[in-house]
Q: What sequence folds into this?
């Protein structure tokens, strides 16, 4: 049985002060929820808030720390980058890689995403590997081939054990921040296809273990239907993770379906 993950991607939002307030709000909201049926809850603030947020959650087993990106070299002449060991020192356990915004605005390639996945897993951390199609790709009928190619390239050269530990997030680009969620049955179909692709490049055990999330306008009122699908193992949440009550609402909805 795969444990669900609800991950908040705060993107470029929240100063340190705001991040601390939001984290305290989440801790407060989580207090009332039964720990044994909680999903794995991950929050991914900007780099500059990681230290302060970790101070608040390091002794709290209900929330794990995530980062939104990393570089794949440990150190060296790479101005402006942050490495996996540096994030690990701050308590980071999960690192989101290959988000469509990074692919689109910062020219991240599948090859870079693969290097990052290798660097993250080599240090014992967990990559959340994002994939997803544009509206044009969906309309042209190339969704599945595009996503299968993104996944194969991201997982290239990884061991079966490392693949089994990893997390994938399927995020149709047209559903991100638009309020247009992908139909749950369709999201589940694509996620099943991703699981088949994982099986092709590893084995069925890894494909059964890997957790595959849906992302794209997830809200408290969409999560129950999404979590009721056979292959959706959680959500990567942007906008609705920026307010404690809506993020807690998504966690509660998950618990209703998967307690
Ligand atoms: P959204 O973002 O929930 O605001 O659509 C999701 C994401 O980009 O991870």
A:
């Amino acid at each position: 049985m795969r444990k669900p993950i609800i991950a908040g991607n705060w993107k470029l939002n929240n100063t340190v002060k705001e991040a601390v307030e939001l984290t305290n709000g989440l801790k407060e909201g989580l207090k009332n929820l039964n720990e044994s049926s909680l999903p794995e809850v991950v929050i991914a603030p900007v780099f500059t808030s990681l230290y302060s947020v970790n101070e608040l959650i390091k002794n709290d087993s209900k929330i794990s720390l995530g980062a939104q990106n990393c570089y794949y070299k440990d150190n060296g002449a790479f101005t402006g980058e942050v490495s996996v060991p540096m994030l690990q020192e701050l308590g980071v356990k999960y690192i989101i890689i290959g988000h469509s915004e990074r692919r689109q605005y910062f020219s991240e390639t599948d090859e870079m995403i693969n290097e990052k996945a290798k660097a993250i897993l080599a240090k014992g951390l967990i990559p959340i590997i994002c994939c997803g199609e544009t509206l044009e790709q969906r309309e042209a009928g190339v969704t599945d081939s595009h996503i299968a190619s993104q996944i194969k390239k991201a997982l290239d050269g990884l061991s079966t054990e490392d693949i089994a530990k990893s997390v994938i997030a399927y995020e149709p680009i047209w559903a991100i921040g638009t309020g247009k969620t992908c139909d749950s049955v369709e999201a589940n179909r694509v996620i099943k296809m991703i699981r088949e692709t994982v099986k092709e490049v590893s084995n069925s055990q890894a494909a059964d273990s890997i957790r595959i999330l849906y992302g794209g306008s997830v809200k408290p009122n969409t999560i129950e239907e999404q979590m009721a699908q056979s292959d959706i193992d959680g959500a990567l949440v942007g906008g609705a993770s920026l307010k404690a009550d809506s993020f807690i609402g998504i966690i509660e909805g998950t618990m209703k379906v998967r307690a």
Summary: Residues 9, 171, 176-177, 215-218, 236-240 surround 2-phosphoglycolic acid (CB under 6 Å).
